[in-house]
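Show me any protein, fold above all:
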Amino acid sequence: MATQHKIEGDHSRFRQIVRGKIRKELRKFITKGELVARKGKGTVSIPLPQIDIPRFRFGQKQTGGVGQGEGEIGQSLGSDGEPSTGEAGDKPGDHVLEVDVSLKELAEILGEELELPNIQPKGKHTVLTERSRYVGIRNVGPESLRHFKRTFKHALLRQIASGIYDPLNPVIIPERQDKRFRSWEVRPVPENSAVIVYMMDVSGSMGEEQKEIVRIESFWIDTWLRSQYKNIQSVYIVHDAEAKEVDEHTFFHLRESGGTKISSAYRLCVQLIKERFNPAEWNIYPFHFSDGDNWGADDTEECFRVLDGELLPASNMFCYGQVRSAYGSGKFKDDLDGRYAADDRVITSDIASVEGILTSIRDFLGKGR
């Protein structure tokens, strides 16, 4: 048992070392997007080449060498200064250590590093779910809920009281009146629910570099919000001059050409909210990513009408990330800032490159809405 406790302590210290390494290198992991490709079910495999696990290394037999034997101070332990031939060898090399970290722990590291506040759900909007709970013991019930210890105890007391218990032959046989069963009940439990609506411009001006930025940032946004809500869904909308709902894979790999009408995405977002996500029961987070290019001033005004009349009243907050592109106008963020500078429900962020992702995440999630 003492050995088990020691192992648990060693494992805990190792996890703290891993956590410190991840936090120290968080910006590097975010900008390179390594974690996104290593995501599994509830965990992420993180490469940590800096961590060296202590182990013994033994030399080859009968090769001599400088240890506690012969040798001079300062003598080289290498190959006597001869250059390496660079030929292939038959010995194993050093490998990168991969450590599995839960998405929950990764979210905690992100929150600590960016000093993100816990989210306060909008109003008191919750969904009631049913949860079973054991509340006591009773004399009747199905065999699957029989309480072994209580049943054994009652059988033992009955045999002792009746004088049939034999300490030299302690056979305890429960009878019907000895059996005890767990009792349970179903209680409604309030559970906060959220939906993330990702919208992205996929017109010709959004290249692979811009989509990679959106992919990485969406992963971290998703990781944080999933740590704040028990029930969460993600919806994906792509648009050029028209908008359509797609799955996650299509969202990050589709490329189309043509013009850009941002209002088409906002109208589809409102439609999906009306059909599936009642604002009285869901915390709603629309995130829109674009290079700032829009069809014209008329469509920008239409975006304002949709935001003011339907999208903002239904949402916890509305986030717009403008990814810089050599082909986009970059004007839509300025339009939003000019219109909603005093409205804390609208958050905009300028993402110049992958190095700007961390700042953008802090912009979006730093208010705890």
About this structure: The radius of gyration is 31 Å.
